[in-house]
Fold:
Amino acid sequence: YIPRNTYGNVYLFKPCMLPKGTVHITLPSIAKIAKRIGITWAPAQTGWEVHCRKSHPLLTGIIICEEDEEILLEAFNHDVNREIERKAQKINSQARRNWFKLIKAVMVYKQVNGLEQHLSDQSIDQSNNNQSIDQSIDKSSNN
Structure:
């Protein structure tokens, strides 16, 4: 059982205010995990924030029963591991896409250079042919 105030929070201004048989957990996204696996929880109000001339409750972490702590931490670790795997897979797929783009760019570069080389070889051959034609014309006109 988690005693709550009228707003559904648990006042926890000091660690000694923690109700007996409960635990305060301040891990990121822990409330979503607790809600997903069906554990009874309540937000922990640890103070007040003042901004825009108004006071707002500062909610830090959640309060759960001691017997549910191990289950929740296992679920949290499982989610963290799954997130790490997902990020690693994303980085791996991005690296594969980048390698594919690089290989494709190199192939296009080689193809363009090969085409330029082929065209320059043709132009050299053509200029040699033109020179030989010009020389033969000069020889025939000299005769």
User: Anything to note?
Assistant: The helical segments are 30-37, 69-142. The chain has two helices and four strands.
